[in-house]
Write a structure and sequence with these properties.
The protein is of the alpha+beta class. The chain contains 16 helices and 47 strands. Among the domains are: 205 residues, glycosyl hydrolase (family 31) (Immunoglobulin-like, Sandwich), CATH 2.60.40; 78 residues, Immunoglobulin-like (Sandwich), CATH 2.60.40; 84 residues, Sandwich (Immunoglobulin-like), CATH 2.60.40.1180. The relative contact order is 0.09. The structure holds alpha-D-glucopyranose.
Length: 776
Amino acid sequence: MNEMTLKVKDELLKVSFITPKIVNFHYSKNGVFNKDYSFCVEYQKLKNSNVEVNFKEDEKYYYLSSEYLNIAISKELGKVSIYDKDGNLILSDYEDKGYVKEGSKIFTYKEIKYGEAFFGFGERLGSLNKKGQVLINWNTDESNHSMNNDPLYQCHPFFISWHPKASYGLFFDNTFFSYFDMGRENQSYYYFCAQDGELDYYFIYGPSPKEVIEGYTFLVGRCHMPPLWSLGFHQSRWSYDSEKKVYEVAEKFRKRKIPCDAIYLDIDYMKGYRVFTVNRKRFPNFDKMAEDLKRLGFKIVLIIDPGVKWDKRYEVFKEGIEKDFFCKRENGKIFTGYVWPGKSVFPDFLREEARDFWGENHRKFINLGISGFWNDMNEPSIFSKIEYLAMKILFHILKLKEPPKLKSPKSFEEKIKRIKKKTMDEGVIHKLNGKIFYHSEIHNIYGLLMNKATFEGFLKIKPNERPFILTRSGFSGIQKYSAVWCGDNKSSWENLFSSIITLQNLSMSGVPFVGEDVGGFWGDCDKELFARWIELGVFYPFFRVHTAKNTKEQEPWSFGEEVERIAKELISLRYRLIPYIYSLFYEAKEKGIPILRSLILEFPNIREVLNHEDEFMFGPFILVAPVYEKNHRERNVYLPDGFWYDFYTGKRYRGGSSIKVNAPLNKIPLFIREGAIIPMWDVQSYVGEKNQEILTLEIYPGEGKFLYYEDDGTTWDYEKGIYNLVEFSTFKRGEQQVLSVRFVHRGYEGGAKFLNVHYCKKEKKIDFTEGEFEIN
Ligand code: GLC
């Protein structure tokens, strides 16, 4: 790291080059730097980097430059301007407003360039390009997922600015309540503001959006290889509330030969919603059930909520009280709030000892072979006593299928007040090494820390197995620990559509393992909606059906034979794609590149793709154009430049324009990019059922490359080099289409042994060895 402290206006500005492309700007507040920590950025790693930076100054400016960037900072105005090496202005402060203070609040204003578009910001509703919108960073349990409602359960104060000249990213490393105004107040500038803390942000130069994501995830961390089974299909509902029901669902999947890897237990498996307990009336032989399901090839995933019931006879509560692990108010009283178990207390996950205590509580489940945990309500979501009682009446007595809709807040201030009421008071204290932090600063990372507790706890108990953790709340870096689902959507066409947008933005925020409740959570799903949603869910990196209490059944067979057939076919396609998806996760682990990709990631130089946010790429080769309107049996699909092949018919299209395609109920429009190499498996009932000795390669005309990855799918041995990485490439040599196979890394013996190469309806079986093969 190369750090300089400069005097600008009446404050100090620390400029640190983390790499030649990533620069940290950190301003003092009233002359002092109080923040010498980050909850997201791995500081130690950064301190070791050494970047060559040239520094000059004259009367008016400071000049800093690295291999990629030239920065000028005016001494009088404090205005920062960042240029690339061709002299293009990439980012500039707006007038003299690079740093503005107002009481404890801090702001920075930046110019908006002509044609600039903004993506990312974590989990958001509304349109993909956030230009002209305000995005709030305050994790909130929000059950109304209608267009533009903001914020949701997790916020990532990061975005990508796209521009034909160059893209850059900005990460605001501040965990207090904050918001971005991306040109809503004024089209000439955007600004971001936090209610407290310091102005500490990172500029990340691309020039491509993928390079921005790579730079950002270098700072905040990347995912690990997921357990292979977690790429399969997951079935959930609130709740499969008895052993009998769980067996019934499991057996139906196997009998109907619909692939499935996981069944979820929602809150009713617990005794009176006491976390880490089992209701023995409903689940008298829980241990045996876990064994039996394992034999059938299912994993059980258990919901875990952070609220611990206030109950003096309950071990988890007693131990937490004795050891002082729960959050307190400043006056020393334990903070209490209402969640599913009634009056509850909340672990202070900021403290390592409290995280250890939490992790350790998973032991008995982990020892039963359970390796999937679903962290919910961890914003943390907290009800008042009245809300809690109302909820009981609405869902248990009146058996509502969705919560009543509240009136929208009248003003921004009212909205802030409302969302802040849904959680702990901001004055609640957390502690770290004896130092006090208020909830106002920790709120946004509470879920992140809970996931850290689960992840680290799991590794202590089973050091050589990869856990699967799913979370609702999170913050920048959540991908290090968990997959993310986007909470309580609705069985509606609007929500099917909005998932396409939300998942693209969350993916662009460095979180690759993402999904939404397929079929929708609140309300009843119907035949057509379910079929369309399953079709789309195949291309969610995380693929799970889930639905709320009191709603209609939502299993693949619940909507009659036709939909069952469609679901089975589509879920089977998902299982065939697993080697492709797993290889994409390798890229996510290495570089942060997501699985579900906005067109702008694959085609950064084509402005037209900005107009087609209702399509996305699944990895580099598969263009997915979901049908998201009722009764529609065709849709327009925009194909970017190049050649494309209809997945179903093989018909070839020249890209660069939109085409109208048929989309009968059993078909989601899919187009394959020229030069595609898609590794596939045989369908199986669950991951690991078959020993997949043959890897099928679906190869399309043109030139292309794909990095194929394989390992044992469950342990951390890949970190010791026990994996294979193979570069497949295809190209034309004269009249021949050639497949080249090259091992980049060879360390795993249990992988595929043969390649079954499909090219233009021809099939060729060859040994999986290095070489060049003619395939037509
Ligand atoms: C929350 C979760 C939902 C879960 C329910 C009951 O609403 O978002 O997925 O089913 O709680 O635990």
